[in-house]
Amino acid sequence: MAKVKEENLNGKEVAEEPVEAPQVVIDLEDPELFINRELSMLQFQWRVFEEAADAKNPLLERIKFLAIVASNMDEFFMVRVGGLKLQLEAGFVDLPPDGLTPAEQLAMIRKEANKLLDAARELFNEEIKPALTEQGVHILDFEELSEKQRENVQAYFEEMIFPVLTPLAFDPGHPFPHISNLSLNLAVMIRDARGLEHFARVKVPGTFPRLFPLKRSSGATRKDGTVPYNHYFVWLEQVIAVNLERLFPGMEIIEVHPFRVTRNADMIIQELEADDLLETMEQSVLQRRFGAVVRVAINPDMPQKIRDILIENLDLDRNDLFVLDGPLGFSSLFSIHENVDRYDLKDSPFIPALPSSLTADREADIFTVMRREDILLHHPYDSFSPVIQFMKTAAEDPNVLAIKQTLYRTGRNSEIVDALLKARQNGKQVAALVELKARFDEESNIEWARKLEQEGVHVTYGLVGLKTHSKLSLVVRQEDDKIRRYVHLSTGNYNAVTAHIYEDLGLFTSDPEIGADASELFNSLTGYSDKKDYRKLLVAPNGLRDRIADLIQRETEHQNQGRKSHIIIKCNHIIDKRMIQLLYLASMAGVTVDLLVRGMCCLRPGLEGISENIRVHSIVGRFLEHSRIYYFLNGGREEIYIGSSDLMPRNLNRRVEAVFPVENEDLVRIIRNDILEVYLQDNLRARRMNSDGSFTRLQPQDGEAPIDSQQTFLQRRN
Q1: Three-state DSSP class for 300?
Q2: Is the predicted pLDDT of residue 174 greater than 90, yes or no?
Q3: 247 pLDDT exceeds 90?
């Protein structure tokens, strides 16, 4: 209530009249309050690009980050742009909270993507490639090869490459050839003996290294007395291009130009109509090669007549031609990082640690330790080996009756799957929920599903219409005259390779209520169940959304009542409109909200009267930040949940997710003080989000100690 003073005509004050202050009405449906998710994803790619541009990173790590940007952009076009184009072609408009139409999004995406891809090429050509040359790592064009190198390349071409190549003509007798997804090709114009010109396509085979390694030579002696090798690579498509006469004898090669195709890979599985989901997925993976073309990358010197041939026969919009300088398909740069054994140009290796609870008593098996206390693992700083040992021990233990396991991304050589197979061979009941729709891991998961089924494992593929994304292992063990359940829950996948480069949290527990919840969750996944209420687990799609909403609203109520309040959320993405609105309302009430978001964030921080109390940080570095943590101060009675779910509609509505409480006070303290606070203090790897969706990289202020959160976690383990 505000008061105003009034004066009469003689200048004398009259009685003060209380009046209502004008109420500012904020429309939380306003599209201006939301950032477009696709543009937010491109902002994330810029942050990854910054790591490639950062001269403080080791040189071979910088080229790896360039390859990551290229690979991420491939997936972005295959899935996100492919989906938008399908919407546009079908005339179906599903406007996001920011209100942009598919056509508007595509136009903005093309503009921003071109800027990013051009910046990546400029960085490679002007900075990274010359720096590699100085270090004895030579990425050469064919014309830069020495006479001896050319002789060696030619000999290899004749013996190995030439027999594999298949030139495909395009004329009235030969239809335009199919161009497979992510394939690199040569568009060749030839002239026959009659002077007629023809178009042909030659695919650069993926069976050979794209960056073809040449014979190494000894370099200059270092100060420490060691002698490094000089490494030499040449682009495979250039080797093929200079040898095209071998493919078209008697023809004149007029010109040759590379092009690279990206197709829509946004598969839609009609599960209700599929008798066998496994067979359906196998067919869908095959069909991915035949999706509509969403992008073709070319070089600037490709003439218009060849561009027109591609546009017409690939059914392209002219805007889908991306003109890029230099070699196409920078994801191939991964091979430089992998194949160059210059460890002085890479991140220092580290040995993941083991929690003291697992090393204090060398005689105790993991079940004994779990009965004593819950165990928290923070990967990759903590080793993934306890998870593998947990499964191996369960497979061999005669008292273990059953093992149940979700498998999302397991990788090609999975010790977890081997343990499940061993358990079955040892006569235990084994059930595996294999998610066949784990994007771009479908083929690996199909192989494992077949192998598990052959050994008699109960294999299921989840619920109709839902992707199973929860990370859960359940071991049922007979102890004396009772049954005890042992559970491992995680924010990350059961993949030993990614566990060394993804940041995740995992929890071992023998909590009876969590064990009972895990049993009922598996029953709902493998059988018939309409279970909605769990004792401690928060499970999507039934109860997770409502519970997270309640926790945010409870924090708002604490603030309104003058009690302590604070929300910290660490996740991959924040997209969900309702969750963003609840966070806005919490901020408007005065709740401090700290968000650690690796990728997409559609919330705008720092808006006057709406989100002044919200800070959004994003950390990009050596390890992929992947854990999901939900912290609530709760008036001083802290609650922490961790799990597999981001704040996205797909996670909350269309996936099976499991989020679980951390109740041990020591572990709560570790997550709050030793993990979350370190992230929030990071001023080297962290970027702070601005209201317009851009990010500003933080730097230590005067008198402020430099803090790199990932390096801090590594140092604590050494």
Answers
A1: coil
A2: no
A3: yes
* CA distances for 518 relative to 162, 316, 459, 467, 524, angstroms: 56, 49, 17, 17, 10
Residue 544: which pLDDT band, with cuts at 50, 70 and 90? Answer: very high
Question: Which residues are paired to 611 by β-bridges?
Answer: none
Does the pLDDT of residue 290 top 70, yes or no? Answer: no
Q: Which residue has the tokens 């997270």?
A: 548
Q: 2 pLDDT band (50/70/90 cuts)?
A: very low
| Cα separation values, 18 from 6, 8, 147, Å | 11, 17, 94
Distance CA 39, CA 84 (A): 13
SS3 (DSSP) at 346: coil
In this structure, the strands spanning 321-323 and 197-203 are unpaired
Of 264, 249, 357, 368, which Cα lies nearest the Cα of 314? 264
CB of 60 within 8 A of CB of 346?
Answer: yes
For residue range 510-543, list pLDDT tens digits in order: 999 999 999 999 888 877 666 778 999 999 988 9
433 CB contacts (<8 Å, ≥6 apart)?
A: 404, 405, 406, 407, 460, 461, 462, 468, 522, 525, 526
Task: Summarize the confidence of residues 457-478 as an average pLDDT.
Answer: 80
Q: Which amino acid is at 576?
A: D
Q: Which two tokens stand for residue 642?
A: 């961790």
CA distance 58 to 244: 39
CA dihedral sign of residues 640, 642, 648, 650: negative
- Which residues are registered as beta bridge partners of 4? 17
Which pLDDT value is given to residue 154? Answer: 93
Give the contacts of 25 (CB within 8 A, at least 6 positions apart): none
Q: Which two tokens stand for residue 247?
A: 């493919």
How far are the Cα atoms of 221, 226, 232 from residue 136, in angstroms, in the given order? 12, 14, 8
Task: Convert the pLDDT of each residue in 86-125 to its tens digit.
Answer: 888 878 777 899 999 999 999 999 999 999 999 999 999 9
Task: Tell me the two tokens of residue 4.
Answer: 């105003």
- Give percent helix, percent strand, percent coil of the chain, each to the nearest 5: 40, 25, 35
Q: Which of 231, 257, 378, 469 is catalytic?
A: 469
Q: Which two tokens stand for residue 281?
A: 């997925």
> What residues contact 217, with CB distance under 8 A and at least 6 apart?
229, 230, 232
Q: In 329-471, at which residue ranges do the beta strands (DSSP E only) sit?
A: 375-379, 400-407, 429-434, 458-460, 467-468
Which tokens belong to 269? Answer: 């599985």
Residue 274 pLDDT more than 60? no
Here the tokens at position 640 are 């922490």
Distance CA 62, CA 124 (A): 10
Can you spell out the DSSP letters for 642-693?
A: EES--BSHHHHHSEEEEEEEE--HHHHHIIIIIIIHHHHH--SSEEEEPTTS
Do residues 128 and 62 lie in contact, with contact meaning Cβ atoms separated by under 8 Å? yes
Mean residue pLDDT of the chain comes to: 88
Q: Which two tokens stand for residue 699?
A: 């730097």
pLDDT recorded at residue 268: 41
H helices within 527-629, ranges in order?
Answer: 544-560, 577-589
- pLDDT exceeds cutoff 80 at 283: no
Contact 337, 63 (CB under 8 A): yes
Render pLDDT for 298-322 as a digit per residue (tens, 0 to 9). Answer: 999 999 999 999 999 999 989 999 9
User: What integer pLDDT is reported at residue 465 of this predicted model?
Assistant: 63
Question: How many helices (H) does the chain have, and how many strands (E)?
Answer: 22, 30
What is the structure's pLDDT at 83?
Answer: 86
Question: Active-site residue 198, yes or no?
Answer: no
Whether 657 has a pLDDT exceeding 70, the answer reads: yes
Residue where the block lists tokens 């084994």: 430
Count CB atoms within 10 A of the CB of residue 396.
Answer: 13
The 3-state DSSP class for residue 591 equals coil
Determine phi and psi for 657, rounding to 5 degrees.
Answer: -120, 155
Exposed/middle/buried for 121, CB within 10 Å: 0-12, 13-18, 19+?
middle
Which residue has 């040995």 as its token pair?
351
